[in-house]
Structure prediction request, 137 residues.
Amino acid sequence: MESEKVLIQLNGENYSRWRFEIEAVLEARDCLDVVSGETTCPQKDESEIKAWKKRDALARSIISRSLDDFHHAFIRSCKTSKEMMNCIVRIKEQATVSSKLLVSSEFHAYTWKPGMNVASFIAGLNVIVNKMQSLQI
Prediction:
């Protein structure tokens, strides 16, 4: 079953990749709109409420299984998949002065290393640029 496949686990260094992959999996499993808050829990129709809760439970399971122990500790009190995702995003996308300085330094220190080809150099540079964009540098 697709939902049983091992997902990439969020750790201290792979947030951008984790976010990309988790959103793709959530979309493939038809629950990204629940996580984003685009689709909220219906108020009246019992069958719609049950269907929404099932999609939310699937999303919570996917998110939970994709976190290492450190990050998992932050989401244990969350009641919905939206709360879980917001919690992780809040932790990982803090645009502090020190994180901006760190990424800016990483960009300026990035150099060609022996054994690199053009594609690997540009891929590494793109990772840094994506970090900078997420911090709005």
The mean pLDDT is 90. The chain has two domains: 2-92, 97-134.
